[in-house]
User: Which sequence fits this backbone?
């Protein structure tokens, strides 16, 4: 099992979670983060750090969210590692409560 970053991260991209990850499993894309499932040790330290509740254990994903496990694995293979907190996008708060953001994902 591994933790997964879901759609809630798109266009928010808060990076509080990356600083607590003991294995540096986070990867940074243009407008969201993902977790490399091969590096995640299921510690859960990142979950309370995410201000938009975008991180969940893959086994706990709702049926509609299950494709995010595969998407995290796919994108983690392409995107670079991120290990230090960065400022969020200037409009992150405006996107925090928005749903249905998958079409906005930048690869």
Assistant:
């Amino acid at each position: 099992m591994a933790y997964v970053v879901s759609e809630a991260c798109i266009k928010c991209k808060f990076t509080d979670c990356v600083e607590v990850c003991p294995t540096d499993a986070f990867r940074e894309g243009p407008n969201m983060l993902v977790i490399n499932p091969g590096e995640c040790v299921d510690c859960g330290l990142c979950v309370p750090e995410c201000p938009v509740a975008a991180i969940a254990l893959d086994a706990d994903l709702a049926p509609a969210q299950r494709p995010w496990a595969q998407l995290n694995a796919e994108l983690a293979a392409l995107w670079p590692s991120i290990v230090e907190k960065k400022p969020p996008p200037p409009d992150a708060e405006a996107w925090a409560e928005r749903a249905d953001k998958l079409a906005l994902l930048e690869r």
